[in-house]
Amino acid sequence: MPTGGWATVWTWSIVAALALYALGVAVARSCALALGVAIVVQLLPLASPLLLSKDAYAYWSQARVLIAHGGNPYRDPPGRFAADPSLPYVSESWRQTTVDYGPAWEVVGTAPAAAAGTSARAAELAYRALAVLGILAAIVLVARRTRNPAAIAFVGWNPLVALHFAGGGHNDAWVAVLLALAVFGGDSARGSAAWSAATFYKGFPGFFVPLQLARVRLQARNSFWLGLGATTAVLAIVSFGLFGTAWITTAFTGANTPSGLGGVHWLEQLGLRYRYAVGIGGFAFACVYVALLVHAWRHGRARFSLATSALCLTAAQLRPWYALWPVVLAGAEEDAVAAVVAYALTSYLLLADAVHF
Questions:
Q1: Which of 93, 147, 189, 282 is the S-S candidate for 227 at Cβ 3.0 to 4.6 Å?
Q2: Cα–Cα distance for residue pair 162/20, rounded to 1 Å
Q3: What angle do CA 182, 347, 141 make, to 5 degrees?
Q4: 4-to-17, 30, 163, 167, 354 alpha-carbon distances in Å
Q5: 300: left (phi > 0), else alpha (psi -120 to 50), else beta?
Q6: Cα(196)–Cα(112) distance, integer angstroms
C-alpha cells in the first residue's frame, strides 16, 4: 500500500473506482462495450507490482514442495526445505504450515511454479497471469450465456477482482469459472461435474449442491448423478495417488484461521468468546441456507450468490478476494438482489482491507 501523499491518491482512487463501478453497471447497454471494458479493467493490474498480498509466493513455495523436492504439500511445510529459493519470499506465518486448499488446486498450481523455476518475479507474474485468465474465462462465460451488459459489467468491472487477481494472483479465479459452469450446467452431467471439480479445488462448493437438487425438487436427471459420481471418483483416485490420505480433511474443511473481517470477528468485538461467535455465525448461516432451500423448492430458483454471500459474512475466515464468489454467481444468475448484496460485500472488503481513512 502506498505511503505519504500517494496514500491519499490510492484511497480516493479506490473510492472512485467503487462508485464508477456501480454507475457503470447501472448504465451498461452494450455487450461488446461491457466486455471490452471488462478485459481492460482486469488486465491493467498486471502492469503493477504484486498488490495487497504475498499469497502468490506461498503458492510457488508449496508447489515446489511437490515438483522440486518430491514432498507432499499436505504433510511437508515449505520451511522443511530451508534452502529452497522460494522460502525467503513466503510470509513467516506460512513457512511452517501445510496447504489448506483442495488437491485440484495443488495440481493446477504446479504449472506456474514449473514455468517460473527459481525466479520470484517470474513466479508472481505466472500466478497473476493464471488468475487473470480465470477471471477472463468467467467473464466470457457470463457474456456468452446471459447476453446481458449489466451482468457482464457486474463481473468484469469490479475493482476488487482486478486488484486481487491480476494484481495479487489469488487462486479463487478458477473456482469462479467452475461455479459459473455449475450454474449454467444446471442438472446436467456438465453441471454436476463442475460442482465436483470446484469442491476438489476449494471445499465449500459442495455445500451448495443441495440447492441445485432443491431447485429441481430432487428430480435431477440421471446424467447429473453420473457426472457427479464419475468426476468425484476420478478426482479422488488422482488425489489419493498424488497425496495419499492427507488431503481429505483439508480439502473439505479448508483453513480454520479466523480473520478480522467476517461476522465472527465482529461478534467477538461485541464481547463474545470465539466458540460462541462461531456457533452464532454457523446458526445464522444455517437459517439463511434453509430459507434458500425452501425458496429453491418452491420457486425453482437456487440463488447461489446469496448463499455464498451468507457464507462469507458468517464464516470465521473471510478474505477480501472471497467476494469474487458471489459477484460471479450474481452475474451468472442475473440476480439483482444478490448483486446489491455482492456489491455491498465488495465495497466493505475492499475498503476495510486496501485503504486506511
A1: 189
A2: 14
A3: 25
A4: 21, 40, 21, 21, 15
A5: left
A6: 23
**Rg of the Cα trace of the chain?**
20
Amino acid sitting at position 81: F
Q: Is 311 left (phi over 0), alpha (psi -120 to 50) or beta?
A: alpha
pLDDT (tens, 9 = 90+) of the chain, 357 residues, equals 566 667 788 888 899 999 999 999 999 999 999 999 999 999 999 999 999 899 999 999 999 999 999 999 999 999 999 999 999 999 988 899 899 899 999 999 999 999 999 999 999 999 999 999 999 999 999 999 999 999 999 999 999 999 999 999 999 999 999 999 999 999 999 999 999 999 999 989 999 999 999 999 999 999 999 999 999 999 999 999 999 998 887 766 555 567 778 889 999 999 999 999 999 999 999 999 999 999 999 999 999 999 999 999 998 889 999 999 999 999 999 999 999 999 999 999 999 888 876
Best CA proximity match to 94, nearest among 79, 84, 80: 79
Q: What angle do CA 179, 66, 123 make, to 5 degrees?
A: 70
Do residues 112 and 130 touch, judged by C-beta distance below 8 A?
Answer: yes
**With left for phi above 0 and alpha for psi between -120 and 50, is residue 254 left, alpha or beta?**
left
Q: Helices 324-333 and 336-354 sit at what angle, rounded to 10 degrees? A: 160
Measured over the CA atoms of residue 36, residue 38, residue 42 and residue 44, the dihedral's sign is: positive
Name the grid cell of 161: 477482482
